[in-house]
Structure formats: C-alpha cells, structure tokens
Design goal:
The protein has about 100 residues and is mostly beta strands. About 0% of the residues lie in helices and about 55% in strands. The chain has no helices and nine strands.
Length: about 100
C-alpha cells in the first residue's frame, strides 16, 4: 500500500503518479478557467470532488459536480470549463 496526498495548488495541476501505463493528476481549475480541446492516448477517468465543471466531449456537454465520474476511451477529444473553483482527479491508464 502507498499513500499519496494532493497539495493545495491555487489553480494548477500536479502529477501524483506518472508512470508508463498510469498517470494520476490532481487538477485545480479556477472559476472561468478553460482547458482547451485535447486528447489522451490512454483511457481516462475524471473524478470531480469539489466545484462544478462544464465538461465538453465528443457527444456533447455534461455539467459535473462532486460525485460524478466521466470515463473516456483513448483519443477521445474533450475540453472543460470551471463554473466554480474546482478540484478533480484525472486517472489515465494504458491497458
């Protein structure tokens, strides 16, 4: 077992785990901030645990709040905009 703790970042990101097949990123985005369209070569799971985010995917937009989880296949284009100051965990896995 290994414990990894996220830091208070003030609107930035940090890779908590960064390995060949696994990347776990703690992402903090401030209200109004946008992450432009991008994709990953890995499967992605996004877990929001604070705030509110407009998550734009290939099949439309979803407003996500704490308790919501987004899953994406590799190379799925997506973008997001913080509707409130928000904290997310982004887990990327290559199987």
């Amino acid at each position: 077992m290994k414990k990894i703790s996220a830091n208070i970042l003030g609107g930035k990101f940090e890779h908590l785990v960064d390995e060949d097949n696994l990347q776990i990123t703690h992402l903090q985005i401030k209200k109004g901030e946008e992450i432009p369209s991008h994709k990953s070569d890995k499967s992605v799971v996004v877990v929001i645990y604070n705030g509110k985010v407009d998550f734009k995917g290939e099949n439309g937009n979803q407003i996500i709040i704490p308790g919501d989880i987004i899953t994406m296949d590799p190379n799925e284009i997506h973008a997001l905009k913080a509707l409130e100051d928000s904290d997310l965990m982004v887990i990327k896995v290559k199987i």
